[in-house]
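Hi C.,

You asked whether I'd gotten around to modeling the 299-residue construct. I have! Everything is below, sequence then structure, no commentary in between.
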Amino acid sequence: MPYLVIFIPAYNEEGVLGQTIKNITQQISGENQRDFIADIIVIDDGSQDKTREIALAANVKRVISHPQNMGLGAATRTGLQTALEMGADIAVKIDGDFQFEATDIEKIIQPILEDRADCVFGSRFQGNRDYYGKEIHKKLGNKFIAWLTSAITGLFITDATTGFMAFHKRYLKIFNIIGNYNESQQLIIDSWGKHMRVMEIPVLVKQRTTGKSFINWKYPCIVIPNMIRAFIHFKPLRFFFFTGLFCILAAIAVWLYVSFSPNLSLGDGGTTITILVLVGFQTIFFGLLADQNSYMVKK
């Protein structure tokens, strides 16, 4: 039978962690047990409350504690690495805030068990569900991050900030999370870049009752650079080519403006045009070098 490692990243979740573990345990043991074997581990990301003690009292398979709070990306990295070390066929990541339903664990691993996907991401919004309600800023923010993730990968992503996902062992061997802050967008882009079969499925979700979300105004300032870094890693030529092309087109625009302006001469914009052209061609050249290097590394 397939061996599942279900890992729960947790930071100051003493209020609901015990309930989350109990709920998962009920779904993977006793009369609810299905055709797989599962263990639960908790990644305590430097909690300052009783998160670690509650996890230990719940008799989970392992509790791994970071010496300080490192971020959800770092906790997810530890969870995936530990699942690989434990010999998992499938690793399932579920948040510790009791928002996701443990009954969906079987649902999220089903495409992997049926060999239809390597990486499955649970979507809170598939089917036009209104999870955020009146929190317009969060709704718009998630839509933008989902759009950007979709634009980068060419996949249709509806929930790029999900906390519920599953991965086959073939991806566990090669995954890479660059940044320590966010995890879901990085994993979507990374799995796409490594030619994994990526799928989204709808999952049930409850409103948070304790604690608070780590997503705030700083989120896009950290997340977007990490997404761009991940994209450049896999498609350097595409990124640098269009960046260089933009500089060259800007140089042409300046030249046209100066040429057709009666009060300006070519010398007025010559320096700007020269700089833009040089930067444009150098950027494209760097893209070619980076693409060649990326190809050699993958080979």
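If it helps when you're writing up: The chain has a mean pLDDT of 86.

Thanks,
B.
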